[in-house]
Amino acid sequence: MSKKPTAGPALHKVIMVGSGGVGKSALTLQFMYDEFVEDYEPTKADSYRKKVVLDGEEVQIDILDTAGQEDYAAIRDNYFRSGEGFLCVFSITDDESFQATQEFREQILRVKNDESIPFLLVGNKCDLNDKRKVPLNECQVRAQQWSVPYVETSAKTRENVDKVFFDLMREIRSRKTEDSKATSGRAKDRCKKRRLKCTLL
Amino acid sequence: MDFDSPEENEFPGLYASEAADAKSKKSKEESDYSEGDHDKHSKKDLLIGRRKDKKDKGKDRGYAALEGESSPEEELDTKSPSKSKKSKTFKFTSSKSKEKREKSRDKEKETKPLEEEPAQKTKDKEREKEKDRHHDEKEHKKKDKERKEKDKKEKFEKKDKKDKKSKQLQQEDGSAVEEVLALGYPIFGVSISLATERSRCHDGIDLPLVVRDCIDYLQQEQSLKCDHIYKVEPIKTRLLHYKRLYNNRDNDASVDDIPTACSLLKLFLRELPEPVLTTDLVARFEEVASHPKVTEQQTELQQLLEQLPKCNRTLLSWILLHFDAVIQQERYNKLNAQSLAMLLSPTLQMSHRLMVVLLCHCANLFPDVKLIKYVPPLTSSSPGLPDNPDDIKTELRKQDSLLTQIHSEMNAGFITKKREEQLWEVQRIITQLKRKLRSSEKKLEKSIDELDSTISAPPARQSAVQPADLKAPTNPSAVPTANASEDTIDSKSVPPHRIAPMQQLDELSIATSPPPIEYTIDKQTGYMLLSKTNPQRDDLLRLQIEYDELMNWQNELKTRILAERNEIFRMKQFYEQEILKPLVAPTISQEQLPSEGDYERIIEHYTRENALLEHKKQMLGTELKEERRACIALQVELRMQQF
Fold this sequence. Notes:
The structure holds two protein chains of two kinds.
Chain A: E1 10-18, H1 24-33, E2 45-54, E3 57-66, H2 73-82, E4 85-91, H3 95-112, E5 119-124, H4 136-146, E6 150-152, H5 161-200
Chain B: H1 6-10, H2 16-34, H3 39-55, H4 64-70, H5 72-79, H6 83-94, H7 102-116, H8 120-125, H9 133-153, H10 160-173, H11 192-198, H12 209-218, H13 221-225, H14 236-247, H15 258-270, H16 282-289, H17 294-307, H18 310-328, H19 330-333, H20 337-348, H21 352-365, H22 389-411, H23 417-456, H24 459-471, H25 478-512, E1 519-521, E2 528-530, H26 537-580, H27 584-592, H28 596-642
Antiparallel strand pairs in B: 1-2
Helix pairs in contact in B: 2-3, 2-4, 2-6, 3-5, 3-7, 4-20, 5-9, 12-15, 12-18, 14-15, 15-20, 16-17, 16-21, 17-21, 18-21, 20-21, 22-23, 24-28, 25-26, 26-28
């Protein structure tokens, strides 16, 4: 639960997407509580909040762990709409999950209507490299197509787990500052106009 | 609004042809109430009349007089999006049909100016009636106007979302007065089931939240005892303010004064498109109410209540029990069944007599219903989550219900920043609750596992016991203590097995005893014997025998424990006596003292030996238990043969 009202530290909303069983919950739980859960239990939807220090600044991260199964697609849109950044996860040991990322990407773009939404392509289960089904270069090509970063993680060994969340938060943050600049820029313009008028007078 | 049949929207003139004959049907009823009733109703009643007639053509309409009093049509009207068309069609048809409607026609003419200005005239005529209805009338008219405008603009819009937008547009125009919904899904003016669905109480009681909140507030003792209850008018703006809050699901602050709570409840009831007792059944309720025999009334009412939709029944039960609570406090609030029925029967669209009858029977009609104060789902600002697994589960159910509602509303297009925040928050609380539940379940499992392991083969115990043995291997009292503790554990292991059959037996006897099942008591054993044809006969018998056997075993173990305890006591005494004469022992031991290395080796040897023996004993113990259990099973089968 939030301990402070929203007036406190900045809040970044991250959404985990990807097919069922690729390790979205495992990544989330590893990030949140440093625990690795072996047994698989399908998620319907779970949400977490954590305070973290991002480049010396205290921020809050809201993580929404969504269902991979299509059965819950109906409620997914409601969440996608309010997400500020997305971790699109697949398993490097499962080609189908990699193919599915395409669809998730499209879905997100449809809801957010924004090509440059903070987004990371995440290949999970990199500890199982011997069972790899998705070649690394294929993943990188796709990431390049979308012009998003590609990171391989392991929820089991915690490899790159913090990295993906922090990288995404950085993207969200820079995105937000850009947006606020844009709006304040407009405000400045208005000021200028007013000043112009004044000088004219 | 959104729930109205789309064809009306699309084809405004659809019902025009029906209007004529509906009107002539209605006109008689109309004359019943038009004398003392609001003028504008005559028109509205007619309009709805045809809608209603369409529905229940040929049905018995013996309750028409009632309707006049409380004018359900008005409510129906408010929720209809086709107002503008109606007035048009009305003019059109009224010019056609002229028979014996002079009076009403005059009034119809009046309705026009009336609609522009708040119902001043009606006020005079209605003094004896409920006062606050006027507010609603005004409100309805405003709403009507609003809708008319809207309908003109968007006659052919079908989707709710568009409806919503149009309302927002209106807000921008400033044309909408008070009833601007952020959401195209109001709570007021829709059917009970819709209202319940749209603003749920998340604790499983199917009441619209507004009803629950009002009743909760009014059920407080000081409210019930207050003599303002159901008598004093609220401040109109306040009332409408709350109505809007509930319609927008924005009700963070619930009602906090008695007149507003009463009127809000009444407003909700009055705006229902159909009476709580339903259009179909209300006439039959009235019949029962006029039944001379009070005793028969109750059973008949019971039967009728069974036929009501579930949410109607729930709503009815709650309001009646609440009203009953009000009249219980007659001493303070000066309201008895008669006077309260006088005030509220029009709102409920039933006769005074019926309401008095319902009030008189309500405690018996709804014996299971308890007015429980609503505790809404927790929010992030709540102090903390529950710890008790049962509380967690209850809370989880509430949160799930809330989440489902948020999702369905969002899917229907009701999306605001606030809603989205709430969605994440609720989701977060659910996740936390689930984690908490899981960890508490795991803890429970662990403790059960531990219990099991200590019972069957306690490794922890063993290691705990061994050091004691080690420290004083020569101490004679230590060994029996360990033994005794083992035995106590053994005996502890019995109760679960014993309790289970006992419970089963209890359940069985409870389950079997209420119906007149024939059984005999065996004189020798005292067993309950069912007739031979009963399929449960064997089960029951087996359980009884098993119970006996297990009881025997338990007694046996108990006596053994007692014996062991006595032995411990005896040994302790012996030990103390030995300590009192210490000088003899050292001399002997000194003589036998071997070298350092030998000493260590011997200790090691005995330690290992002891551990081994302890383990063997453990194994034998479990084996013994298993054998004993098999014995009992056989014994049971054997004795079964005797019967």
